[in-house]
Amino acid sequence: MPSLSTGAPSGDPHNRFNPLGLSQLSENLRGAMEARPKVALAGLSQFAGAGLYALYYRGGLPIYQDLHNTDIPLYVGKAEAGNSSYGDPPDEQKPKLYKRIDKHRTSIDEATNLSAEDFDVRYLPLDDVWIVLGERALLRAYSPVLWNTLLTGFGANPAGGARTNPRSFWDTLHPGRPRAAKYWCNRLLTRYEVEARVREGIAVSLMPPGAERDQALTQLRSRRYQRVWSLPPRKDKNRRPIVYRPDAFREENTAFQVFVEPGAWRATPTPEDGTAEAMAEEIDDGETEDVEE
Questions:
Q1: Residue 74 in 3-state DSSP?
Q2: Half-sphere exposure (Cβ direction) of 272: Cα atoms closer than 13 Å
Q3: How confident is the model over 246-259, as pLDDT tens digits?
């Protein structure tokens, strides 16, 4: 019995072609997106509809220089027209896609080392039925997509008001957004470690598709890091956050002009005590999830 391929036909003439397979859809959407003109983000005018979009950097920040003159986006996102519990068609006249992009334009301009003048955007209006699957396909096509996976926090909703909320990876490398001004430093990585992770991610982005690239991406995503600090376990009666790297903790918060009272945290017990938690961990889904509203 011939098998059903997940995308384009392979070398086996018996394989059936699936035009809706994720790999084929990814290829189609990438082609459709790259066929769209890049528009200056700063001058984007309001338009109606929903769909997909991608942000591209062309500014002078050294860390992103290797992405110039490529079709590799820093961020891929979506905006849906909306659902109806009655099955009514969504209102395609609302500027859902424009508003999402404009929200990102504000975040970029709030950062001290970024400007919307240095970004282009491509957008692809689509029916809602294709948008969620389309975003997944584009993320796969352009993986790792730095601001979606390695430098998370750019598109996430603001966290609550607690000062012990950790600064996101994005706000660590691109400080300036008012909502992050009061947050403590990132729990897992310092500014220099975040930058090194991004540089490695860019190198992976520029590799040709294949097993070597997949292996490099897997290694990057599974790398273990020494935590800077964490909230206490639920059963811990001492509710003060635990700091594993006090020097890095102080240095990072000072750099972001965040004052943390000495008594607001506690250092981890020394390994000799036999009570110290493991200080190394992977960046898991809880650290990297970037949920938009």
A1: coil
A2: 0
A3: 999 999 999 999 99
